[in-house]
Design a protein that fits this description.
The structure holds 2 protein chains of 2 kinds. Chain A has a single domain, classed as P-loop containing nucleotide triphosphate hydrolases (Rossmann fold), CATH 3.40.50. In chain A, the strands form 2 sheets. Chain A has a 6-stranded mixed β-sheet. Chain A starts with a strand and ends in a 16-residue tail after the last strand. In chain A, about 45% of the residues are buried. Chain A contains 7 helices and 10 strands. Chain A has helices spanning about 45-50, 75-85, 100-110, 115-130, 145-155, 175-190, 200-205; strands at about 5-15, 15-30, 35, 60-65, 65-70, 85-90, 160-165, 195-200, 210-215, 220-225. In chain A, helix 3 (about 100-110) crosses helix 4. Chain B is an alpha+beta fold. Chain B folds into 2 domains: about 1-50 and about 270-420, no CATH class; about 60-270, no CATH class. Helix content of chain B is about 50%, strand content about 20%. Chain B is built from 13 helices and 12 strands. Chain B has helices at about 1-15, 15-50, 85-90, 130, 145-150, 160-165, 210-215, 235-250, 265-310, 310-320, 325-360, 385-410, 415-420; strands at about 60-65, 100-115, 115-125, 135-140, 155-160, 180, 185-195, 200-205, 225-230, 260-265, 365-370, 370-375. In chain B, the strands form 2 sheets. In chain B, strands 1, 2, 3, 4, 5, 6, 7, 8, 9 and 10 form a 10-stranded mixed β-sheet that branches. A two-stranded antiparallel ribbon of chain B has the order 11-12. In chain B, a hairpin with a 2-residue loop joins strand 11 and strand 12 (about 370-375). Chain B starts with a helix and ends with a helix. Classes of the chains: A alpha/beta, B alpha+beta. The interface of A and B includes residues 55, 83, 87 and 106 of A.
Chain lengths: ~240, ~425
């Protein structure tokens, strides 16, 4: 198993204690394309933060590729995030004063890759995502879809084991959303990238092969969706 | 390294006004530091101008008047040194410290050459005095060993005396090889030295042995000068002086601790005291300068805090994609040091420029003190050592300014930073 969560609990102690994750058990295999679905407040964002080593959990165990992720120093966490995980965010989170190619290069910069080599690699990834012509542009000169593709290139460049996408289509129109989801599923299908998408949109979830429903901090149903017919809104489009 | 500077440039470029206003404060601080130190150096140089006329390891003593009754004799007796005092100073009793011992003996007289004449003091000297008192020979030579041995009637004139004797506008070297008259004797001029304004009248040097014989001085000497070694502290010098005073005083039947019977002029301790005053002045100027700089540093720290606040979200992104805390700390520290260093160097450059201007203007101005033209500021500039020290100060100051903001930036947790807008 690539990802294994065993009885993971998380409580926030801001004034009134809030038990957000109440014993999460989840296994995700290499090459899977999974979505985690739930309403807001269900704990799906917290789960994603824990999966992405952005946040700690209180009790339980979390393994990536057999490595226990627990009690890490900030430095170790940063290195694991850099090498194991690629992030895709709803608001793209590109750095505004850096060009597309510089944004894509950044994770390699933190690995200490030489200037020349990381530029070359970043150009390759941008090219694969059809953005070679936009390499020198700043994020505010690009459309939402282009920005998200730059973010995907940045997430992929280190060859991570897991791609974590937090509402990747949340800020996009339906046509672009569909393109982005198709891109993700193509990456999963053709290159075997393990992808976990957190969403509250059933249309987005329907693009994935497995849907994990989370409600009130507990995993409910795990739906096999290889037929892509789970959406209540239809099978072919992402409804907005 | 280039990546770091690219990052800094990107950040500075976005905040030009803010950065340059703060930078101005840093430049001002360093500017003041350099100008203060430069002016301080100028002041010290003008103080020390008198001090370095002599080799610093020489002592001079001469007879005074006794102030205490001793050995059956009353106070108020004149002490006259003689050649036995030279021998005593050079004897085994002091040989641990004393090197060369020389003495002078002289008389007043009138020198004349052609139609001109002036009153002079002709002093019998030894060749060693040239190095002990750093006598600067402009033309010809100083007294030499052969002059002493053969009791030659030769003299070395100070520049002012040579000018006084030569016809107007004649070149100085014209007097070399000419004979002048002093008293009833004719003396060959062998050299001209730079005039020492601290001396009273025109003092011309002749061989010790010649003066002694011509003027019938017998055993008498006016003062004794010697060079020494191995007395490195003020305390060691004091002990030595006490011992020397006791020995000389006893020879002349004066109380061993009678300070007025023998005056001792120790150039080493005098220089030591002067340099202590100098270093206190220096420290005071550094403190004033550093406090001025402090204002600039607080400014830099302040803008770095604002920068950190503004860039929290960006740091969150960086952390999410793998920036370690140190990477973030480094970013802020490097920016802080760079801003401080760049503007500091501008200030340092302008400060050095100001010192040069000071040198060309105020540095040339002279003030009349006791018939002598004294420059208030001599070479009011700072050396390479100060430039290096100031560089260190800038780097340390920049690091200090960035430290707190940088720590703050590196401590923000990525999820909180990502949430920030």
């Amino acid at each position: 198993m690539l990802i294994e969560l065993k009885d993971v609990n998380k409580t926030y102690n801001n004034g009134q204690p809030l038990h957000v994750l109440k014993g999460i058990n989840l296994s995700i295999d290499k090459g899977e394309f999974v979505s985690i679905m739930g309403a807001s407040g269900s704990g799906k964002s917290t789960l994603l933060n824990i999966l992405g080593i952005l946040d700690n959990y209180d009790t339980g165990e979390y393994y990536i590729d057999g490595r226990l992720i627990k009690g890490l120093t900030e430095k170790q966490a940063a290195e694991y995030r850099n090498r194991l995980i690629g992030f895709i965010f709803q608001s793209f989170n590109l750095i505004g004063f850096k060009t597309a190619v510089e944004n894509v290069e950044l994770p390699l910069f933190y690995q200490g890759v030489s200037r020349h080599k990381r530029h070359e690699l970043a150009m390759q990834y941008l090219d694969r995502l059809g953005l070679a012509d936009w390499a020198g542009h700043y994020p505010n000169e690009m459309s939402g879809g282009q920005k998200q593709r730059v973010a995907i290139a940045r997430a992929l460049i280190t060859g991570p084991k897991i791609l974590l996408a937090d509402e990747p289509t949340g800020a996009l129109d339906s046509k672009t959303s569909e393109e982005v989801m198709q891109l993700l599923s193509r990456l999963n299908r053709e290159e075997g990238v393990t992808i976990i998408v957190v969403t509250h949109e059933s249309g987005v979830a329907n693009c994935t092969d497995k849907i994990v429903h989370i409600k009130d901090g507990i995993i409910g149903r795990i739906e096999d969706n290889r037929e892509h017919n789970a959406s209540a809104f239809g099978t072919a489009t992402i409804m907005k | 390294m280039r990546d770091v500077f690219t990052e800094i440039w990107e950040s500075v470029r976005r905040n030009k006004l803010r950065t340059s206003l703060t930078g101005f404060a840093v430049s001002w601080g360093i500017f003041m530091l350099i100008v203060l130190l430069g002016a301080g150096n100028g002041l010290q140089n003008s103080f020390f101008k008198g001090g370095d006329r002599f080799a610093s390891n020489t002592m001079m003593f001469g007879g005074g008047w006794t102030s205490k009754p001793y050995d059956g004799l009353r106070e108020g007796r004149r002490i006259r040194l003689d050649e036995k005092d030279i021998l005593l100073t050079g004897s085994d009793a002091f040989s641990d410290n004393v090197d060369n011992v020389i003495a002078t003996v002289g008389v007043n007289g009138t020198a004349s050459y052609g139609k001109k004449s002036l009153s002079v003091y002709i002093e019998g000297n030894y060749p060693e005095r040239a190095s002990m008192e750093k006598i600067e020979i402009l033309h010809g030579r100083y007294i030499n060993d052969k002059d002493i041995k053969d009791r030659r009637k030769v003299v070395v004139l100070p520049q002012s005396a040579a000018e006084g004797l030569l016809p107007d506008n004649a070149p100085l070297e014209d007097i070399i090889g000419k004979h002048i008259r002093v008293g009833n004797f004719s003396w060959l001029v062998v050299g001209v030295n730079k005039t020492d304004r601290m001396r009273g009248n025109e003092q011309i040097a002749a061989p010790f042995t010649t003066v002694k014989e011509i003027y019938n001085k017998g055993e008498d000497v006016d003062d004794v000068t010697f060079s020494f070694h191995g007395l490195d502290t003020e305390k060691a010098n004091e002990e030595f002086e006490t011992k020397l005073r006791a020995a000389i005083n006893l020879r002349h039947r004066a109380a061993p601790d009678d300070n007025r019977a023998l005056w001792i002029w120790n150039r080493f301790t005098q220089n030591l005291q002067m340099s202590t005053v100098g270093s206190i002045l220096n420290v005071a100027l550094w403190i004033i300068g550093l406090f001025t700089l402090l204002g600039g540093i607080v400014g830099v720290s302040n803008i770095m805090l604002i920068t950190v606040k503004e860039r929290t979200h960006e740091f969150g992104i960086r952390k999410a994609i793998g920036a370690r805390p140190w990477d973030i700390t480094k970013l802020i520290l490097a920016e802080s040091v760079t801003i401080t260093a760049v503007f500091g160097y501008i200030g340092m450059f302008l400060g050095m420029l100001a010192c040069q201007i000071l040198d060309k203007t105020v540095g040339q101005a002279k003030v009349a003190v006791m018939d002598e033209q004294i420059a208030m500021l001599v070479n009011p500039t700072v050396g390479l050592d100060v430039a290096i020290e100031a560089t260190l100060v800038l780097i340390i100051a920049g690091s200090l300014a960035g430290l707190f903001p940088a720590r703050k930036a590196s401590k923000v947790r990525p999820i909180e930073a990502l949430r920030a807008e």
